[in-house]
Give the backbone structure.
Amino acid sequence: MPIISYLLRFIETYLSAEKKNCAAAYPQVLFMVSDELNELLRCSFVIVDKPRGPSSHEVAAWVRKLTGAQKSGHSGTLDPKVSGVLPVGIGKATKLLPFLTTKDKKYVCLMSTKKPQTDEQYRAMFARFTGTITQTPPKESAVAKKARKRKVYYIKPIQMKPTQALFEVHCEAGTYIRVLVSDFGRLCGGAEMLELRRVAVGNIYESSAHNLQQVSDAIWAARRGEESALMRYLIPPQEALSLRKVVLHDSAVEAVCAGAPLYAPGLASCDAKIRREDFVSLLTGKGEFIGVGVARLTSEEMGAHKSGVACTPETIVMERGKYQKNW
């Protein structure tokens, strides 16, 4: 990227921040980056392998400081003693976190029991709490302490010993594994959760997560002009959200960025199996992420209709003025 254009952009951002009496939007330690990396630093997700100890809020704050982003936030709080996959949104991606929070979760839990259990007893206990269950959030949680129904898709034993069991749980968002273990204890004479690790959030698995030291090293490498590692760690919204995609004609992009619905003539293509009311990723023809929309037609109807509203915008993150105004 030419140094003149970079400096002009930085000065413009700094002056704008000064007028608003707020911090500049760029990293505290100034370093030059490519346009592609700059876009990711403005709006992307970092999949952190959270260690045991710090809170989820502290981890998100560290990512914000490392990347120099104005804002950061996390999807799905992990207790300080819990490790695993923690998606952290930076910049404008914080507006998209609610779409990740509702994704299914997978955990691996190590549980101890007061009384010895056989493999058959463990399996029967796990089967009893598979399906729709009723839970009341623990007193430590920040949500209302009201009973609510949640789905447990499976509880799969990994290793079973008389007084310990290691198992994997695939469950709906908002399911508390600590409460689940407490429920097990009522059946088997007492149980305690020894360790818990989240291994997946939706389609984001622990294999794509990175610890904070790796993120820090990638930032320092980018300062030396080696951007490849940091580019791998910053996940574009359309990849992190895993929503079906709707591609717009260039002529419709600016109107949607301004909050207008996407009409059928502005639709270039779409994925199959989109249903009405589904959330979808809105993209430009170049693959740039515009935001999240709500489908008002099915995939088949989008392909057949020549008029009418195909999608309405839900959360838009692309800045206005990037594409030509055509109205």
Q: What stands out?
A: The domain at 104-201 is CATH 3.30.70.3190 (Alpha-Beta Plaits). The chain has three domains: 3-100+206-238, 104-201, 243-316. Confidence is low (pLDDT under 50) at residues 17-30. The longest strand covers residues 148-161.
